[in-house]
Amino acid sequence: MRAAVQHETGQDKLEVLDDIEAVGFGPGKVRMRIRATGLCHSDLSAMNGVLPQPAPFVPGHEGAGEILDVGDGVTGLSQGDRVLMCWLPACGTCPSCKRGQTHLCLAGFMNAGTPNFKRTGAGSSDVFGFAGTGTFAEEVVVAANCAVPIPDDVPYEIAALIGCGVTTGLGAAINTAKVEAASSVAVIGCGGVGISVIQGAKACGAAQIVAVDPVAARREAALRFGATEAVAPGELADAKQRITAGEGFDYVFEVVGKSATARTAYETTRRGGTLCVVGAGALDDPFQVNMFELFFDEKRILPSLYGGADVLRSYERAIALWRAGRIDLEGLITHRVQLAEINDALDQMRSGTALRTCIEI
After folding, report:
1. DSSP class of residue 174?
2. Which residue among 1, 49, 57, 81 has its CA within the 20 to 30 Å range from the CA of 257?
3. Are strands 117-119 and 125-129 parallel, antiparallel or unpaired?
4. Considering just the CA atoms, what is the radius of gyration of the chain in Å?
5. What confidence category does residue 113 fall into, taking pLDDT thresholds of 50, 70 and 90?
6. What are the Cα distances from residue 311, in Å, to 100, 102, 194, 323?
7. 262, exposed or middle or buried, with CB in 10 Å at 0-12, 13-18, 19+?
């Protein structure tokens, strides 16, 4: 079968090979045919080494498709079921799951160290899947709890987005920050996840939502998705002064994953307000606040991983909001490519021209 492979960390291009085999099928596992997958910025971060990931590997974790086969002991799933990929499944038995913080379950991360692909041609070798998945492939074998059934009216490309970026962004606003009605919000970084934060803040009833991004096309898109104003980074200080009389925003979301933008977000948050960190950053990029301002300003600093709550419930909520016309998911897909054109998708994300590129497989 075909899959896009990153041979070494740091390479900026993927190679589409046709001698890849999905391995590991057995009890508790399912074989899944990928029909659509989105390119998330986390895939780029794994490729360039910001996020740790063994190589060679197949990127991709935001996917949807159908079940081809189920292993012994698997219940609730059957051949032909339409499913989305959950890259961070809950085991249901660990301390985090028992506390109701299923999004903090580490069971899924344990899969990342086990190869789930194999190259069968010349130079036969094991190949990992990013975050234990690897959706830039025609097929993948994953634990059964990674495959979540989706209703028949949800297209594969929409389900793929719900599998990561939409859930992450909506959840940051709704679950983690708990944006209040009539509040002021700033969102720094307006790719697919940032746009989903904006839609979440709008759904919560925020009065002002300022989108901040260096790319003009993304600023224009943010206005279509619910931002009340869109500014370049250099204009944020003026927006803070005009909209909040210099006090700062009630909620500021950092959706870039860099300490510099997190620091800007902190300084843009009012005293007693909330800074929500959504972007996934590097191990060697520390974010610093001094002990006096931490105490005196009483700003809440809230990281948000995968939407900050039970992902299965978050999937259901995203579908309900989409069905009701409260959020726009089709509009997030600005580009479509075939698997053979995967490097075009990478260029589209790096340049900022794409919110989400759908790779049709």
Report:
1. I
2. 57
3. antiparallel
4. 20
5. confident
6. 11, 8, 18, 18
7. buried
